[in-house]
Amino acid sequence: MNGLYALKPWFAGRLAAVRRVLVEREVSPALLTWAGVGFAAAAGAAVALLPAGPVAGVAVAVLLVARLACANLDGGVARESGRSTRFGFVVNELGDRLAEFAVLAGCLFVAPPAAVAGAALAATLPSWVSLAGAAAGAPRLQGGPVGKTERCALLALLAATGAAIPVLALLAAGSLVTAAVRLARVAGALRRPESATVPGTYAVAGARP
After folding, report:
1. Measured between alpha carbons, how far is 55 from 36 in angstroms, rounded to an integer?
2. What predicted TM-score, i.e. pTM, was given to this entire model?
3. 133: left (phi over 0), alpha (psi -120 to 50) or beta
4. How many CA atoms lie within 13 A of 92 on its CB side?
5. Where are its TM segments located (predicted)?
6. Which domains does the chain have, with CATH numbers?
7. Distance (Å, rounded) from C-alpha 209 to C-alpha 83?
8. What whole-number distance in Å separates Cα of residue 25 and Cα of residue 105?
């Protein structure tokens, strides 16, 4: 793990009590996935509607932490309740992509559409590289230098400063670098057959129905 993704075990530990309650109450992992998309959409609305400054920055940060919490909880709830499925993996990935686009959509109100579209497209590339690698038998890669968590931090910075174009440019450039780093790691992993899984399969331990 690298970048802010290295904090995932710590973050999961802080959510342990919430996760237990959700399992006890039989909350659907898929519901948590879509709740994360909702929090991301709310963060996008905050970017669009609130004037740039500390209030907007805190609001977006809180909503995106909630979005990340849902992304962490859905897999944990699925595993602890015995409801992990391969299709849950698909739902997870779809939810992550929609959540990213939902918050970036709010940037259309504060930045040129071309800048937002470029950032949105670049932000998807690290995940596509990881998924392609996993399909070929490499481990599913996560982390930075500008992974999902860093992109959330950058969007909170955008809301706090109003520097939409520079932050979106940094997000896009960082995402491209991250995609390149992951591609190099995938290539290295696939040159080591002993570390690969069966081609065409995914590690679905965190998948949800």
Report:
1. 21
2. 0.87
3. alpha
4. 27
5. 98-123, 153-181
6. 13-190 (1.20.120.1760)
7. 6
8. 33
